[in-house]
C-alpha cells in the first residue's frame, strides 16, 4: 500500500539503519588478527603473572622453609634444655635418695649398736645374777652342810651321853 517513492524512502531508511547498526556492531567486533594479537597479549600477561607467582611461591616457600628451620632449631634447643633439666632433676633425686638411704643405714646402725649394747648389758646382768645365784647356792649348801654336821654332832653327843 505504499507508493514506489515511499517504498524506496522506507527501504533506504531501513538500509541506513541496518548499516548504522552493523557499523556499531563492527566497532565492537574485532578481526581474527586483532583477536590473535589480543590473545597473545593476554597469554603473555598470564605467563608473566605465572612467573611472578612462581617467584613468589619460591620466595614464600623459602621464607617458610627458613622459618621452619628456625623453629626446628629452637625446638631442638628447648628439647635439649628440657632433657638437661630432666637429667639434673634425676641426678638430684638420686643424690637425695642415696643420702636418705645412708641416713637410714646410719640410723639402723645406731639402733643395732644400741640393741647390741642393751643385749650385752642384759647378758652381763644375767651372768652376774647366775654368779650370785651360784654363790648363794654354795652358801646355802655350806650352811646346810654345817647345819647337818652340827645336828649330827649334837645327836652323836647326846647318843654318847646316853650310852
Question: Could you describe the 3D structure shown?
Answer:
The protein has one domain (31-162). The chain is 96% helix and 0% strand. The protein has helices at 4-28, 32-162. The chain is rod-shaped and about 215 Å long. The relative contact order is 0.02. It holds the Pfam family CCDC90-like. Belongs to the CCDC90 family. The chain crosses the membrane at residues 143-162.
List keywords for this structure.
163 residues, mainly alpha, 96% helix
Domain tally: 1
Count of beta strands: 0
N-to-C CA distance? 214 Å
Given the helix and strand composition, which structural class is it?
mainly alpha
Write down the Rg. 66 Å
Strand content: under 5%
- So what's the overall shape? rod-shaped
Count of helices?
2
Mean pLDDT, all residues? 90
Helix content: over 70%
Low-confidence stretches: none
Q: How is the biggest beta sheet arranged?
A: none
Query: Helix-strand pattern, N to C?
Result: HH
Amino acid at each position: 500500500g505504499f507508493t514506489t517513492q515511499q517504498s524506496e524512502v522506507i527501504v533506504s531508511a531501513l538500509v541506513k539503519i541496518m548499516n548504522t547498526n552493523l557499523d556499531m556492531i563492527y566497532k565492537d567486533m574485532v578481526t581474527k588478527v586483532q583477536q590473535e594479537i589480543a590473545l597473545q597479549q593476554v597469554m603473555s600477561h598470564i605467563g608473566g603473572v605465572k612467573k611472578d607467582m612462581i617467584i613468589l611461591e619460591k620466595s614464600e616457600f623459602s621464607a617458610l622453609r627458613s622459618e621452619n628451620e628456625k623453629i626446628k632449631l629452637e625446638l631442638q634447643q628447648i628439647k635439649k634444655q628440657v632433657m638437661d633439666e630432666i637429667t639434673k632433676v634425676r641426678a638430684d633425686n638420686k643424690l637425695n635418695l642415696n643420702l636418705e638411704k645412708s641416713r637410714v643405714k646410719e640410723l639402723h646402725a645406731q639402733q643395732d649398736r644400741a640393741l647390741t649394747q642393751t643385749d650385752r648389758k642384759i647378758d652381763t646382768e644375767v651372768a652376774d645374777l647366775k654368779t650370785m645365784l651360784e654363790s648363794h647356792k654354795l652358801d646355802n649348801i655350806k650352811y646346810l652342810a654345817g647345819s647337818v654336821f652340827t645336828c649330827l654332832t649334837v645327836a652323836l653327843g647326846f647318843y654318847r651321853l646316853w650310852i
